[in-house]
Structures
1.
Amino acid sequence: MAEKRNIFLVGPMGAGKSTIGRHLADELHLEFFDSDQEIERRTGADIAWIFDLEGEDGFRKREENVIYDLTDKQGIVLATGGGSVMNKDVRNRLSARGIVVYLQTTIDKQVARTQRDKRRPLLQHGEPETVLRELAEVRNPLYEEVADYVIDTDDQSARAVANQIVSKIDLF
Ligand SMILES: Nc1ncnc2c1ncn2[C@@H]1O[C@H](COP(=O)(O)OP(=O)(O)OP(=O)(O)O)[C@@H](O)[C@H]1O
Ligand SMILES: O=C(O)C1=C[C@@H](O)[C@@H](O)[C@H](O)C1
Ligand SMILES: [Mg+2]
């Protein structure tokens, strides 16, 4: 039987990877995973706690392991963590195992979409706008490098973005 394709969502915090990923999986009748949630499930600790105890390096190692395991599957939508693409092995793995969709957004939208929720340790120190801008400078070229498709999420609902992805990508 032909291999069922995977869709991997990459992009910065607040791009909507987790929210859009769920809609997309529903639309396409694929299984949904979220690397951040899977790390928390396996560890039994939340991301902020992992950052506190093990530092960002410890978190990144867990993230790499989880992404390696999940990308062994077929027929999934995976929302990846915003910083996972900093690891070249992760980028190569995503490219090899599925279709990579970069969800793009502006810094203003990122600030608005992340401000109510305190789960993102990298946004707990300093001005969120400045931090997000600095991360974008380093990471945006990496999202672009790994992406098969780039989708702008700014002026449409998460469900509309999911529908746009369905109509744009060539799954088979
Ligand atoms: N297209 C959209 N329009 C309006 N709000 C959105 C859109 N996409 C996501 N949101 C909202 O923005 C917030 C952040 O979205 P989400 O958690 O899906 O981002 P993320 O890319 O998974 O971030 P992270 O990398 O931190 O996990 C959520 O409250 C979500 O409902
Ligand atoms: O952009 C990042 O580095 C992060 C994004 C989130 O998805 C989480 O993986 C964590 O908060 C770190
Ligand atoms: Mg998410």
2.
Amino acid sequence: MAAQAQQETAVDPVHDSVRDREISGEQEHLDRVYRRLEEKIHEAEFLMHDAARRGQVGTPGALAERDAQVFRAGVHLNRLNNEFEDFLFGRIDLLPGKDGKKGPDGAYTAVEPAEGAVRPDHTADIAETLHIGRIGVLDAEYSPLVIDWRAPAAAPFYRSTPVDPGRVVRRRVIRSKGRRVLGVEDDLMRPELTAFLDGRELPVIGDGALMAALGQARTHSMRDIVASIQAEQDLVIRAPAASVTYVEGGPGTGKTAVALHRAAYLLYQDRRRYAGGILIVSPTPLLVAYTEGVLPSLGEEGQVAIRAIGSLVDGAEATLYDAPAVARAKGSSRMLKVIRKAARGALESTGTPTRLRVVAFGRRLELDAGELAAVRHTALGGTAPVNLLRPRARRLLLDALWERSGAGTRHTDPELAAELRSSFDDDITTEDDFLAFFDAWWPELTPAAVLDAMADERRLGRWARRVLNPGEVRKVARSLRRDGRSVHDIALLDELQAVLGAPARPRRRRELDPLDQLTGLEELMPVREESQRERAERLAQERTEYAHVIVDEAQDLTPMQWRMIGRRGRHATWTVVGDPAQSSWSDPDEAAQARDEALGSRPRRRFELTVNYRNPAEIAHLAAKVLALAMPGSVAPRAVRSTGVEPRFVTTGGEPGRLQQQGQGRVPVRENGAGEGAGPGGSLAETVRAETARLLERVDGTVGVVVAMQRREEARRWLDGLGDRAVALGSLEAKGLEYDATIVVSPAEIADESPAGLRVLYVALTRATQQLTVVSAERDEPDAAGVPDLLRD
Ligand SMILES: Nc1ncnc2c1ncn2[C@@H]1O[C@H](COP(=O)(O)OP(=O)(O)OP(=O)(O)O)[C@@H](O)[C@H]1O
């Protein structure tokens, strides 16, 4: 953080008047900006009306031009009318630039100051003042009133530090609401300098913007960080979009925030290139809901899709979580073999016909089970998608029947033989029995139908032989028999889609010709199946591929999920953010291999984020103990602030309804809590409920109660009636979220729940921005101070 110099205090009347003067200076500027915006709004409205007045007639070219004009004006108007609360949020005061050149936004381009800009007595004159906002605004003379935060000229606002200040002397964050400036917070980048602006010494106000932002209460929606992006984050946000931008950083280092701001930056940089869309993949619907307001607040919507990993396949929505052992099997790349076998094996079900009987050229022909199996075997040779093999299978069946008929020996003349064969085929393929047989023998398979077939343990056992052990087969099959899909099922559905190929769709029927109806011709017109080329074209249209793919919480993706996302970004550039120490996936090496396959050989630029903006040092210190167990040798990010509030430890008592607690004073125990009479669970319920109520009184924002996955339904009931500031969630659902205060319930239970349990516990312990309480049950083996075994030194 920048050094503070000449800090003002609110009680000093002289300084207060300086503050007021500075605020009213910024107010004047904001007023000017709004006047200009109003002019622009009028212009846009005029353009729209003008275009509309030109009426409905004209050449197609003129009408198209009019529509384009209305569209452009409408978009512009929309943006301008969007009165962002803090439309204008920053300002930098700069020394003169080295070469005196100006960029397209009217600002000097040089990063370094001109020689002699700083005089030997450490004084200097400010040559340029830039205001930074969510969108750029030029005055009537095309001078910048506000620079868009994504423009190159705004970069020094984020990049400048006291170590490497460039031309920036003072960096100011402006707080406003609607059209009113409320306050300013300054950081001096060159504290050694006495700088003058218009002959007056440059004052410095406030405690710095970052701390002010971090101390704010949290709601259930993430805020943008546009006013306080830090230098190491800015490097990632503005990294060139070539190939893969790979970002690692511990909890709270701003990875999610950076990923979202990067999407906005890329669109600003090259809107045309990203017309193909930007996909942001998030681990949970909760995190999607938490983050989806950020981009609209940055003025970006529409071209960015934020999707949970369980909602990536159209028409399927994951509502369930699998038990760890099932998740491990379903997510592993071992499933690939199973899926491929299932896709072929599912062609046969209990209703599959075992005999084909047809009449051709007046003769009965028959193929028995063995012959049909041989035809199927030949048809399935190779790796082509099963649904696309239907025409081939049909042809092979006809070949076998043709051979059986012996008609091929009747003519030696090739032309006559071909004609005979063609009428033989027609004879058979117009027979209803044959069509019914074929649909039953080689049905068009859907991914959902195959996944349902895998729910049969016997069949799954066959398809998974030597890949899954019998225990895994049993558990996976059972999990597929539940109502609803799990997160891991979605990747299997997507893989099946790729292995099966899209089912062919009958071409839209020709428009009915009345004459055909009269002559009965319509009935004779076969409904033609889609050709291979038509199908390929349709698939290309329907394929959900993106120009840029951003993966949040990438450490959690299973190999099967990497394959699913990889298919959506085959030609994309990528931004991948994650933290290996928070991975809930049991086999990181296997996942890394799948990730490398998805990203291909594209070159990667690696970045690291090192500062924890979320957790106060007291909480980060406790979490680091689990990190040391989960990933020995890895370094926790440095917490940027400290609150003086230590984490609190509470234990459940033996009797339901009683709780013992250590730390700051006794907690009132509710006698009629949510879990009364529920044995030891009742005790836990009351403990957590009482602690939640206590924290709700101490923080203005949200309280999150994180429990082991198996307890999440129960935990929701614990909080009944406490209001919507408090939420209960399973450890895996806590990914990426944050709360003013967090209660982590039974660290041992969370850690024991899966092979990656310690890393999941690390996630749970790093969700709080202000206060953390750890509730221990007996299995946590708390010491006399209530500190569970896992969190002791
Ligand atoms: N430069 C910043 N200015 C203000 N707030 C920031 C800044 N960087 C990050 N934050 C805040 O810190 C918190 C953590 O950010 P974020 O959720 O993006 O971290 P993360 O690295 O994704 O964390 P995790 O790995 O735990 O999910 C958020 O509240 C975010 O707004």
